Structure formats: structure tokens, C-alpha cells
Amino acid sequence: MGTGRRKKLHFSKIYSFKCGRAGFKDDHTQIGGPGFSRVVYCNEPGCFEAETRNYAGNYVRSTKYTAASFLPKALFEQFRRVANFYFLVTGVLAFTALAPYSAVSAIIPLIIVIGATMVKESIEDWRRKQQDIEVNNRKVKVHQGDGLFSSTEWKNLRVGDIVKVEKDEFFPADLLLLSSSYDDAVCYVETMNLDGETNLKLKQALEATSSLHEDSDFKGFKALVKCEDPNANLYSFVGTMEFGEQQHPLSPQQLLLRDSKLRNTDYIYGAVIFTGHDTKVIQNSTDPPSKRSKIEKKMDKIIYFLFGVLFLMAFIGSIYFGIVTKEDLDGDSMKRWYLRPDDATIFFDPKRAPVAAIYHFLTAVMLYSYLIPISLYVSIEIVKVLQSSFINHDVHMYYEETDKPAHARTSNLNEELGQIDTILSDKTGTLTCNSMEFIKCSVAGIAYGRGVTEVEKAMAKRKGSPIVVNGKQDLEDSADSDSKSPVKGFNFKDERITHGNWVNEPRSGVIQDFFRLLAVCHTAIPEVDEETGKVSYEAESPDEAAFVIAARELGFEFYKRTQTSVSLNELDPVSRKFIERTYDLLNVIEFNSSRKRMSVIVRNEEGKLLLLSKGADSVMFERLAINGREFEEETREHVNEYADAGLRTLILAYRELNDEEYKAFSEKFAEAKNSVSADRETLIDEVAEKIEKDLILLGATAVEDKLQQGVPECIDKLAQAGIKLWVLTGDKMETAINIGFACSLLRPGMKQITINLETPEIKALEKEGEKNAIAKASKDSVHQQMNEGKALIRASGSEAYALIIDGKSLVYALEDDMKNMFLELAVSCASVICCRSSPKQKALVTRLVKLGTGKTTLAIGDGANDVGMLQEADIGVGISGVEGMQAVMSSDIAIAQFRFLERLLLVHGHWCYRRISSMICYFFYKNVAFGFTAFLYEAYASFSGQPAYNDWFLSLYNVFFTSLPVIAMGVFDQDVSARFCLKFPLLYQEGVQNVLFSWRRIIGWMFNGLCSAVIIFFLCTKALDPQAFNKDGKIAGLEIVGTTMYTCVVWVVNCQMAIAISYFTLIQHIFIWGGIGLWYIFLLAYGAMPPSFSTTAYKLFVESLAATPSFWVVKLFVVISALIPYFSYKAIQMRFFPMYHGMIQWIRHEGQAEDPEYCNVVRQRSIRHTTVGFTARSMARQNRVKDRNQNHR
Known about the structure:
nine-stranded antiparallel sheet, metal-binding, P_typ_ATPase
């Protein structure tokens, strides 16, 4: 795109800065001050001054650990958990004489659990390390001196190095662009790795360095750059370059950011400004938000509760032990003579009973430690990682068009997906496609465009009337009206304008100016296909692309851009032929969220100076000249109609400038752009404000952002599941309302509570400009409107209301003294739509809902303006859509389409919640069952600290014999299939109401464990003691009773798992029955070891247990007896008091799943008067018809 060398290129003519020579006035004083202290010696990275500054190297490390820090840091992370710390303390105490078991058996399980977690951490960190190695060893050409460039690794770069980056290579650091392969020193940059945007950005070097085109030109090159310190702002850069004895201001347009890619440019030369962790992309890189689920927090409380139980048991046992020990020696008589109280150690000395009781307390704390599940945390981590893998690999959430699957960026929150009460959603790009189509326009007060939007179809269906377009009934059948235009971004149908027919219109001159403005007023980059000659565009937004495409299709083809001009192929209205016209591009005043408009200043071939402007109606109408308002009334009317049709509108206007006026503006504009102060943008806006006035109205554009596929159906299912949906959007109120109707978020008959500040009193105050008076009146008005809304809801009873509030009102509604009233009103409504809301307001509303209701919230959005909302919510879901990847990078889970939210929540969310809840309850059950048998035996043994089981039996219970079935349940169990989860959304309410992890259910499982422990202990001891155990007449000793009890515990907890599971897989069979089999194998192998190691288990199974029928009979009888209570409870509950999943299991079992009428009856249980969605809408309509029929009778 080189345009030949120009002697002087005023590069500021296109962007909001100046690259030519300029004075700095007083603004340069910030350079060298706080925040602006960086000094770069270009081409002299090794000079003494550069070395003394000690800037960061270009080696980048994203790992959590280093080789030196891994062990201490990972151990610290593990022992921050109170349970792990407790097991560490008991492990240390196991080396003392207090321990009821050997030290090795206590330490080994802890090492296994901590080791497994640390191995997982190390594997994850090693993967990050491999990525770091690949990035740091990429090659780039760097100047070695004497004009010679050679390849070196990225990690070797230093601040001040001159590098040469070639086409399609990534920038290795933040570079100052010096020159490029183009004569005018421009280059094209793809920033997908930074913000996900695929459109190309145009960058341009200073004029002073633009002539450095050859390697040899850098032989004697030296420059001094003073600039801002490293920071995370991707879109700002303030600095100066001293070169050729002159100072030149630097702006973001000269900064090439690390990890961006050079495109459509053969090569560039750049000076390294920021390296490694000082680069802006690394400064921006953050870990996924650190959030913990409510279940995980509650689990901590349960563990604290169990600690309380453990210490209480130890305390009671110690008091009893102290009293009994003191009474052991009464004069010459000894109660427990076998303990030799007259010659006892400190642990059983009646004379020092209080000390003995304290020692016993410590022994008991160690002995009862098996109440606390040591492998719980690591098991849950394993399960959550595997659950996340299932989410990532679900083909039903894979979007083929963009080749993007779902991606769980954190596995901490899987179960939260099953407990969502409120969804807070962005609109554009989330509910809609953010793929704009030019569909209508209003020019010179006449509406053009016969296309019918989805919102218009929904409105016509709602009203039961034919679709009317521009005063005519739309007679096209639905197939024609739905037909897609072959040109992406253009769906305009009107024979008065297309095919050059606009020249016959009465105001053809205005139409010509209108489309010419669309073709010139933008920052798009044209790309001409050399083979076909077709022009395509890289634009900064879908809206901008749609405008340029529309202009091209209607006879104003933009095909070439240089730094000082844009060229069009225009349809000449006289000759009806296309002619080339070039416009000198003098300035671009860029769009930003506060200005809400963009303008360009051009000189046409006739020498006229024109200001062309387009922007939001809220800022454009007030800038019209008195003689420029000819079509204002008609245009306002059309804009409102377009908003009603769900379209996004912009106003187009222009004015002619005289040379003196432009000269004065140009000087002030250049001064503002050359400012290096922090408020440079404000200065530029102030200068622009003075020239963007007295405009002449041309008309308005209307582009459609279609609803994403499946959005109404998804909202309907989520509503049936009892999930509330709030829409937070920056769009106009009318647009948002009509999109709400189109996606069934609003329905006919639903009364609307609208809160805005469009009252005559406030408008009058705004004209007077009294800020304090406006604020007070506005706040009073919002307060009054909210009170009226609450009164309406109280008076109506069962009617459904929708709350619609605009951004201005939201400012006051979110103030501390009013936010609770706003929340109370909003929660009472079926739908909530916040219009014209800023990113900060989105985040504040999300925080209010999360903290105010105490329920689980999910925020979903696709743009950078949704980041605050996503991070504030309990779960943030990013849409990997058109607006880049910033939302995805800040999210917990990424999906490609809104409709995938249905499966993510109703299927994966429900399964994960049920699995994790059941898994944790079962963990506590099996540990209570095991721990209480140890407690009961110690009580049976007069609280003497005698363990019921062999040391290794104790140690391996949690690690090997009972953990794998729980993990299998957490990964594979399904109460109902995915199809039934979607067919009966009511099932989701189990998670919202938290019925599967309530304290009642948790205590119930613990009580079940206690019952199992009591049954196992008493049946085993009564059956085995003191009767003869085998045919030789030997009685059962500690080792036989303990091993029999242990065998019964292993059988009971594994069989309990088999009863509790709803969905068996081969893996679960292997883990459950394999866990039992592993116990017998271990008993054989351990018993075969020397007595010094196997102690009480030496040949126990072979010689004593296996050969004795009573062992097998007792085991069978005890296992059945211990399972009867839970089985009976489950049978009664399932038959007479089924939960939601139980009902659906009955439906499936009885074969009624395919009966539509029966299923409809079940589904209707989830519909309330406040439920939104088309199912609720249909039912409401049926109810109204029934009511009318009854009234007629």
C-alpha cells in the first residue's frame, strides 16, 4: 500500500496525534516525573547509563513455582488447609510415646495425599514451563552493530535493542516502531492474542525515522526515548524521542505490543522499550478469578464441626479415663490390677491422674483422627478436573462455525453451575450475534428499506396483525422475508435505492451526500483481491464494516486508503457511470464512549473543506444548526421506529468549514494531540467539541443485530428451571424492550414498571444547568417511581411485572440509601432490563444481586465492557464472540453461544452439583462409620487408648479401600440422563434450593454413619465375644474382632455406595467390588510378611478368619443389618416423598416419559406467574382464554 515518497507527511491528519515536529509547551514536564521515568538508549543497550537502570530482561516466566521454591511453596499451600495441618500435627505426635499406632503408618497416608496433590501441581506447572521455553526460545533478528542483524532468542533481548520483525512474526517485546517496508512507515498489526480481535490495526512510525529502510541505516543510529513506566493500559502510551537534536512526541500509534503479529507488511524495524514482565500484555495477564464455591465453603464448616465432635469425644473420654485411673488404686486394692497401677507409667499412674488424662486426650485426638477424611480435598480436586474435562469435550457445546468448544478455565466452581438463581446477561453479542446487517435508513426525512427484522415479526405475532413496512403491508411469505442476502453485512431491500435508482429520488443530492459520508467517515482498511478485484474490509467494529459494505453495494465503493487520502468509486448521477474520486483526509476525530460520535475532516476535489460526522441520536441532534434541522422531526420519528424494531441507529450529519476556521482548529487540535499529560484525551475532546457543531442533518442508519440461534428456546428452558434472567445493556430502552419481547423475556400482558428521568420537570432543570438541583430532583423522582412500582406489585397479587430502568436512573438507584429498595423491587419482578448501563453499573448491579440476595449469580457477556460484571459474579461466563477475548480471559467458563448455557447449567450444572454434594456427604458418612467404631471400641476398653484396628488398617482405609468408589461416583453418577435434564428443567431447582447439601441432609448422612458404626460394633462384639470362635474352641481376641469389624466396615461402606448410585458404569463396578477385593488381597499379602512388620495381622486371614465359618456368617449378617436402615429410608422416601429426581426416575421406570400429556403436567409444576419464556407465555395465553370462556358462561 505504499504511495510513493512524500517530502512531508503530516501523519496526524488521520489519527488523533501528530507525528511531525511539534513543540511541547508545558506538558513535557510530566516526562521524568512520577510514572514517567523510563529512559531508553536506542541502539545502545549495553552502555553504562542503560546498565545502571537495571531493567527487566525479556525472559518470561508464567510458572507458579521455581525449582528452588517448589517444595517450600507447595508444602505451604497444602498445610494452609486446616485438615492437612491437623494430620501433620498428629503425624509428628506419632513419633512420641503418646501414639496409639506406629509413626510410619500415620505419616504414609499424609505423604500419599500431599504427594498426589503436589504431583498434580507440578504437572500443571511443568506444562506452563514448556510453554515458557517455547516462547522464550523463539528467534528474532537483532542489530549486533555495524548495520548487521543476526537471529537471537527472545529471552536475550535488552531494552534499547533494535530488532527487525518480518511478516507474520510475533513482536518479541513492546517495540517503538521506527520504520517499515512501506514508504510512509505504516504497518498492519493483528492483536488477536491481546484482545481477540481479528481486524487489523494500522500503526505508523514517526516521520523523523521513516527513512530507515535498510539494515545498514542503523549503523550509526542513536536516539533517546523518555516515556511512561510499565503499566497495564493497552491503549495508552506517552513519551518523547530525542533524535536529530529534536524532540518528537510519541503515542500509542508508534507502540507495537508483545504477542501482536505483523500482517500485510514485509518487515518493520523497532526499538525495544518494555521487556519481559514489563510488557503491557504480561502486565495484563491475570489468573482466572479466585473464587470458591458455596459447597466448598460449607465443607470447611463441616470439617470444623467434625473437629468439634472429635475434640468433644476426646475430652469426654479423657475425663472418664482420669476419674477411672484415679480410682484404680484404693489403698492396697487395685480395681484394674492387670494395668499394675502400683507400678504404672505416667500414662496410667493413679497418683498423677490429671496428667494421665491430658496425655490420654492427646492420644485420643490422634486415635479419632479417622473421623476427618484425609483424602477428601485431593479426591474433590481430581473429580473437579475430570468434570471440567467432560465440559470441555461435550460435543453438544461445540460451535463448528468458529471451531470453539466450551472451556472451563477453572474447575473450582463446577457445582456452582447447578445452583444458579439469577443470570445477569449482556445483550449485544451475548443474546444477539454482534454481526451487523445494514437493513434500513432514513434519508432526507424519507424511510428506506423494506427488510423485516426478527423483532418486527415477533411484535406482529404478538399483536396478531400483519407486518407493515414503510406504510405498506409486507406481503412476502416468510421464506422470502427470511432469505439471506448473499453479501455479509448487507440485507437492504428497496428498489428506490438499489441498482442506482437513488438518482431518480427527489432528494438524490442528499442521498448522495449520505452514502458518501458512510464511505468516507470511518477507519476501515480496504483489501483488494488481486484475482477477482473485489474489495473487502478490516473494520474496528461490525457496525463500521456494515456501513462501508452498504456504501459499496449502493454505488460508493471505498477501495483505497493512504495516510492522507481515501479513494472511492462513485456512481455519477449524471452519466450513470462510476468515477474515481479522492478526498484529502485531514483529520480523524475518533469515537469514544463519552463522545458517542466520530468525525473526519476532508477536502474534496472541488477544494471544499467538509466535516463529516456520525453518532448517537442523544448527542447528534443537539449539535444541529438551526438551518440543518429540515428533516429532524421525520428522522426522530424514524429513529424511534427503528429502535422499536430492535435496530441500532446512528445519525449522519455534516458541515462545510472555511479555511480560517479550520486553521484555528488544526492548531489547537495539534497542540492537544502533542500534549503528553494524562488528560490529553480530555483536551482533544474539548477541541473537537468546538468544531462538531452547527451540523446539517442528512439522515439515520439502522443496522440489525440478530438474535443468536436458540436464544428464545434457551431462555424458556432456563425460566422453567426457575432461573431469573436480568439483561444489562448499553442500548436504548426501546431497543432493549423489543429484543426482550423477541426472546420471550417479556410477554404480552406483563405490566412494565419503567423508571427513567424523562420527566418535564427534570428536562427543564437540565436546561437551566443547576447540577445540584438536577441531582436532587432526579433522586427524588427515582425514589418515587420505585415506591410506586412496589405499591403496584403489592396491590396486584399474582400478576407478572417487568422492571425497565435506564442508566441515569440507575446512578441513583445504586446509591447506598436506595439500593436495597431497588433490589427489593427488582427481585419482585419477573424480568429486569437495565438500559444505557455503563460497565461499572453492570458490575455494581451484579454485586448488589449477589450480596443482597445471598443466592448464586452468573454473569454472561462477550466484551471488554462486561469484564467487571463477570469478575463480580459468583460465576463469570465469557462468550467467545465478535468483540474479542477480553471477556473470555476474565471468565471462569467460556462458551461460544448463549444457547449452550442451557446444557451447561441444566445438564452439567445439575450433575456436578449432585455428584459433588453426594460425594462429600458419602465421604463424611464413611469416616463417621469408621471413626465411631474406633471410639466405641476404645470406650469398650475403658478409654485406655487401645485402637481396635492394626496400624496399617487404620492408615489405608481412606487412601485405598474406600476412596476410589467415591471418586467414580463424583465423575460418572447420573440421577437422570441429559435428555431428561433438558426435558424436565424443574429438576434444576434441587440445586437452587440446595436440597442435596443442606445441613439436614449432611447430618442425616452422618447419622447413617453413626447407625452403621453402632450396628457393626455391637453385632461383631456380641457375636464373637466370649463364644468360641473356631472348632478348636479358641475365643476371638483383639486381632480377630478388630479385623472382622474392619471387614464389615469395608463391605458396608462399599455396598452403601452401590445402593446410593443411580447410574452404574463398568468403572464403578471395578472400583466398588475391586475395593473390597483389594482389602482381602492386602490382608493376605500383609499377613504373609514377618511378624515384626505385620504384628497382629500375621497370617490372620489364612489361619484364623478364612477357615472359620462364623467369620463369613457374622460378616454377612452384620453387612445386611447395617444396610437395612438406609435401604428402608430410601424405599419409603422414593415411594411416598420423592424428590424431583425421584419423580423423573419414576416416570422413566413406569414408561410415561414419552407420554406428552403426562410430561406436560409434570413440566407445568415449574411454571409460576412470574416465569418468562414462550412456554409460560403460551400457558398465560391459554389461561386468559379459559378465564374469558368461564366469564362468558
